[in-house]
Request: fold
Amino acid sequence: GARERGTREYWRGVAGLLRNRSLMLMSVGGAFRTMTQAGLLTFLPVFLAYELHYSTLGVGVCLTIVQVAGFIGAPIGGHLSDKIGRRRVLMSSMLLSAVLIVAIALAGRTIFFVGFVTLIGFFLYATRSVLQAWAIESTPKHLAGAGVGLQFGITSIGSSISPAVFGMIADAFDIYTAFFFLAGTIIVANLLVIAMPEETNRKTAAAEPRMA
Reply:
């Protein structure tokens, strides 16, 4: 019946999202960004406690600072992306995140460390809402939920493997080397953003699927 045909058309459209170049690049880029975030949040407490000898309270305060900075950064990043464009906000935030990850590994117990941690929380979380908004704009309106769901599914792959990879690098070399790995993942995410087609709106996205 008509309902069955409608269901088939819907799932055909969902399958077509896998051929949407914008959505796939954005999702894979988001996976690398999430690798950075998951690795940082998993091993920052280890780094603080065992390398810098922070107290339990000190570790907790630093992690709180990261989350508070992210709480502030997310709406600011979303607002700026509406004003100056998604790509510009993502590229600048990801590039600065990479620089700051290297900076916190080198800062040690200096007065700059907490400042670097604050900034990295700000810039990392500022990109999350932007990626979601761009995913919605890159899919037809009736598939927006499926597009965001696919994006989050792919990005969760990054968050699931990053802590294990970070741990293996830290065991094989040291935790400082592993932080450079995290800087590398956010740089890869930035390169994928650069490869994204020009930003679109819903009318353009309705011509789905867009092929490479």
About this structure: The mean pLDDT is 85. The chain has eight helices and no strands.
